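Lab notebook: predicted structure, single chain.

Context: the supervisor wants predicted structures on file for every construct in the current expression panel, including those that have not yet been purified. This is the next one on the list. No modifications to the sequence; it matches the entry in the shared construct table.
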Amino acid sequence: MSRTTLEPIGDPIDGVLGDDERARNADHMSALDAALNEKLDVVRAGWGQKYVDRVHAKGKLTTWERLDALKDEGTRVFPFGSLVNWGRAFAGSRRQAPGAGVVTAFVQIHGSWTIVVANDNTVASGSWWPKTPEKIERAQEMALRLRLPVVYLVDCSGLFLPEQANSFSGKTGAGHIFKRNAVLSAEGVPQIAGVFGDCIAGGGYMPIISDRVFMTEKAYMVIAGAALIKGAKSLKLTSLDIGGPEVHVGQSGCADVRVPDDPTCLRMIRDEVAKLPNSGADYYRYGAESVDPLYDPVELSELFPVQHRHTYDVRQVLARIVDGSLFHEVLPDVGCEVVCGLARINGLWVGILANNPHLTDHPDKPGEKRAGGILFRRGIAKLSTFSRACNADGIPMVWLQDIAGFDIGTEAEAQGLLGYGSSLIYANSTNTVPMITVLLRKASGAGYYAMAGHPYDPVHQLSTPITRQAVMEGRTLAIAAFNTKLDDDFEIATDDPEERAAIEKGMAETAARIEADMDPIASAARMDTDEVVPVTELRAWLEVAVTCCYQSTGYRTIKNPRIWSIHDLEALCSL
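Prediction complete. Output recorded below exactly as produced.
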């Protein structure tokens, strides 16, 4: 049949968990959310009010004020990469670089989603720090993958020179920003730039390839500023004289339009976006509308256990994410350690591929249970098959990870799990449909790779405050590191008190270091994930990401639901 029947999923929260457990979970999550929001507030504040005042004294808006003026009224900005460089100190600076000195975000303009790259002019005049180029390049990569218009709000004084060796060269160095400018242009992705202030060296190069370039009266673009040009001082030349709008709009043609101030520039950028084709998302809803989940996403804060080793029902999570809490599960009786199926988010079709943390029945040994959150042979095969079907049908995929890894041991090797795992990795490596990955909780070992982790190019990867991302847990890794000192039961194999104490100390330190590395804030600081978001906001973020997957038309396969290959798969499996 060509119709996909969606069935109700989930239960009222008071029927899932008792009041006490819900309260414990909510209190734990609330504390984590508060700690996250405190850090995000620090990032948004940049270098503080003193530097905000400096920007205003120059007659300019701050970066966040520009974003607020740019977005559609009543909408919100969805920044990503917010915690890049969090906690990192730099030579030559008494201050850190909140958000790597640049804001990258999904911003809705005239109903269409754009990717905005905006230098934070309260952080060292918008300088590029280590990781700044990588953060900008990640935003450009998302724009290229989704064919979203890019808006550059340029106010950049070039590289932060004391750290230039960590941002100038290398495979992700600043030069790759300009290469991506060129690739976006070659692929027909619209790029619009507003130049608002100091744009020196790389800051000056970044807007040039854009389709439209606006310059305010406070702006200049120069390869080198007045301080580096011989004779500029004696001639009393400023950088504005050398490369301001009089030069680049009136003479060189490097910019298109001269505008008096920031608000005018932002209005004109909005006008340019309005000229682009409208979003195709409503067309691809096929007459459906966005429907809120039957169960409130706020309840997600009560669902996840305080202890990461405790289980929960991933279907209850889905019921608080997908439209109407409606879901069509594919092959529900096969590979039960994973859940695959179809749903709508914001009225648009998605394929859901999720780990099931619950204990499941062993398919070949009646009465025996198997651990949840681990990939076994049938589950891997189901993921591979469903992933390929979604790719063939043009259905964006949402991967929900809570995975401890692949099954191990003699049975796993005899069943060829390496081969099945390689098949899944091949599928996800060659998929062309957009994939969105959410690290709900554990993201461990090769399972993190197999479930479309960052190395497999999801267009967006989100973590939550309870995400634990690493090869293995701290205690497990400590056992592996000190294995030669342990007996078959993983107990310390010595009677020497001093040696025992040294091994205990070494194992504890190793486990603690790994636990710190697993923290989602640390992962975000290293750019191992795109953004850390409260679980209660997952629905809102997925609405944006999924809508972006359907906004632009004509660049990828999107089959109408009547001819999905998933129908054939289910028909054959029901015989």
